[in-house]
Each structure stands twice: as structure tokens, then as C-alpha cells.
Amino acid sequence: MLLVAVNAFVGGTLGQERTVLPLLADKVFHLDLYTSALTYIVAFGLAKAGTNYFAGILSDRHGRRPVLIAGWLIAIPVPLLLIFAPSWGWIVAANVVLGISQGLTWSTTVMMKMDLVGPERRGLAMGFNEAAGYLGVAGAALATGFIAATSGLRPGPFLLGAAFIAVGLGLSVLFVRETHHYAKVEAATHVPVHANAGSALSNRQVFTLTSFRDRSLSSVSQAGLVNNLNDGLAWGLFPILFAAAGLSIERVGILAAVYPAVWGAGQLITGALSDRIGRKWLIVGGMLVQAVALGLVGVGHGFDTWLAAAVMLGAGTAMVYPTLLAAIGDVAHPEWRARSVGIYRLWRDGGFAIGALLSGLLADAFGIPSAILVVAALTAASGAVVAVRMRGTDYVDAHPAPGHPG
Hints:
It is a multi-pass membrane protein. Keywords: Cell membrane, Membrane, Transmembrane, Transmembrane helix, Transport. By secondary structure, this protein is an all-alpha fold. Helix 11 crosses helix 16. It is globular.
């Protein structure tokens, strides 16, 4: 539960940007092209994706706790950069730093919970972890929207982010303990779900297995990438779309918060549900629900329609997000699970950069609604890939209860 609390502050550190930065790009820095305005998401996604990979390697080599603390220390200058940025380049630089910090802190909270709970409650643990993080994102997005409406886009919203960093760092230094030894204990009795998931693998072997060779791991990796591709779109373009339609900053903040709030809270249910019914079809269903929700945003108009779409998008993402992480944990051997999680998160968070770049180019060429509809189609196609290619990976399938068909 301590790690759940820590990850809520990790999410809050990210959430300080969700409402405010798209509006800063438009109203303060007067960026004309959507592609230029979304450069901060590209920078964040690339930095976080690369750091996720190294977080897995470093946490296996040096332990989880030092990597967590390092991530918080790196986050300290981010609010200052956002508050005092004289040009858009400073905002982009701040997001490179934030991406590095998020890659270290969020990755290690995932690994530490997997270490602690063992295989039977892996989905539940991922549900708690991701729920805390994205409720933190939602709460910060809502709070910063109201702060911005009453006191301006700067500095007020980012002072809240500074407080999140201070509390998260303090909890991690004073109270969080190392968990790597739990993974070593689990490794001694681990039964691989698939025959090619043995323990003695090099970094290159783990990368190719997670990314391409294993049907389940690679299916999960592409679904994670597409999921964050559509989140990059939502983060960067939704506030601009809503503001251009005449919605107030408060209403834009509500819509920016509802999506991650439903996403966050829903994971308290879907994570545990995946332990009971399996991972695959929850992932497929979630991707298709997201696709429908994105289509509704693209063709819809008005606050009420967009609110319903935001709820649906959050629900679909909740079905997918903790389930993908749990599926990685099901297949990956405990000896290289942290590395596999890091590689999956590399692909997943690379989706931020791809989504921001793709949606920005499409929005510049054809408008925001068309960009949203293209991403909706990609999301549906990703769900179809999982349906066709992914095997049953979950602990329930591998270790059926007496009388369970397996």
C-alpha cells in the first residue's frame, strides 16, 4: 500500500501537465502547427520509453529502491522549468527530464509490486498500481485546470507538481524497502508458462523474445504501444479540440480528468478480474471499446457527448492497462521479468511519441477529427492482432484449479 501511495504521486507529477501544457502551447507560445505543439509529448515519450528499458536492467543489477529514489531526484527541476520557461524549447526540455523520471519511478513501482505479490495476485497488484497512478494523473489534471482558471496558466498549476515530487521523494527515502530478493525466491520455484521462457537469457534474447519472437509477449507489446499512441493523441489534441469548440478551461479540465479518472478507478476491478477470467479477451475487448470511444470523440460535438466518450475511453483503457502488465509477468521468468517489463514499457511509452507525431501530422493536414478517426481505426486493428496472435498467458491458464478445464 505504501508503493500504491508512492505511485499516486508519480501520476500526479505527470498529471500537472495534462490540462495546462496544450493550452500554454496555444495561448502563451502561439504555436501554429499541431505537430510543433505536440513536440513535448514526443520528447516525453522517447525519454520515458528509453528509460523504461534501462530501469529494468538497473533494477536487476542494483536493486529496485535506488532506481526509484534516483527517479524522484531527477524530477526536482521539472516544475521550475515549466514555470520559468521563456520559450517552447524549455518546455520540451522539461518533458525530457520528466520522461526520464517517470521511466525510473513508475517502472520500479510496477516491478516492486510484482516482486511482493507473487503470480496468483499479479493482476490485482497491477490494478492497484495503475489505478493509483492514473487517479493521480486525473486528480492533478482536474486540480490544475481549476487553478489555471482562477490564477492563470503559470505558476500555480506547477507548484502542485512540486509538492507531489517532495512528498513522493520523502516517502521513497524514508519508508520504501528493497524487494528484489522476493523475485529471487520466486525464481527458485517458478514454472514457466511457455517452453521458451527459461531463466538464463541475455539482454538481447530478452529483447527479441519480448518484442518479436514470443507470440504473447510481442502481442502485448504492440497493444501497449497502440494504447499509448491513442493516449498521446488524447493528451495533446483533446484539450485543443474542446477549447476550440468554445468550452471553458474548467470544462476542458473536467474532460481531461474524467478519462484518466475512469481509467484509474476501473483498474481496481479489471486487474483482479484478469486474475479470474484470463488476460487475452479482456485486452481485446478493451482495445475495441477504446476504438469506439475515439470514434465518438471524432464525430461528436458538445460537452455531454465528449463526456460520455471520455468515460468510455477510460473504461476501455482500464480493461487493457493492468492486464497487459500482468500478461508480461505471466510469461517472463522472474530472473528476467524486470528486463521484460522494461522492454514492454519501452514499446508502450514509445506510443506517446508516435501518437503525438502521427496525430499532429494528420491534424495539420486534415484536421483534429480526422486524426482521431485514424487512430480509432489503428486501435481496433491492434485488438484484432491480439485476438489472432496472442496465446492464453495467465496464471489461471497455466495452473488451473482442480476441476478447471485449463
